[in-house]
Specification:
NA-bd_OB-fold, ChsH2_Znr, two-stranded antiparallel ribbon, 1 helix, 2 domains, alpha+beta, extended, single chain, Thioester_dehydratase-like, ChsH2 rubredoxin-like zinc ribbon domain-containing protein, three-stranded antiparallel beta sheet
């Protein structure tokens, strides 16, 4: 490989790594999962400025950038319309079985 004037030679190392991690899901997600598990309720966060509802709840409105809190959470209907979906074929470790499987994703 020829080197052009002004270019430096560089070395590249390639490897695959497994990087397990843990993080706090935050107050809104805790409330979301508690309501789902204990009361079978689907919750969302409703922006006090524009009224947009996000589910799963978000800490900041994607439209207005207004901070949302647990007090901004509202119960959603258990019914909806699937607007779009895909299957992500990058292997995902199923926490229930430990096996690898594709990851379905839907937008309602």
């Amino acid at each position: 490989m020829s080197k052009k004037k002004g270019q430096e030679k560089f070395f590249e190392i390639k490897w695959k790594t497994d990087l397990p991690y843990r993080y706090s899901i935050g107050k809104l997600a805790v409330k979301f999962f508690e309501e789902l598990k204990e009361n079978k309720k689907i919750m969302g966060s409703k922006c006090s400025k524009c009224g947009k509802v996000h589910s799963p709840p978000r800490a900041v409105c994607a439209e207005c950038f207004i901070e949302m809190t647990v007090e901004d959470m509202v119960e959603l209907s258990p019914r909806g319309t699937l607007e779009g979906f895909t299957v992500i074929n990058y292997p995902f470790t199923d926490p229930a079985t430990g096996g690898l499987r594709p990851f379905p994703y839907g937008y309602a």
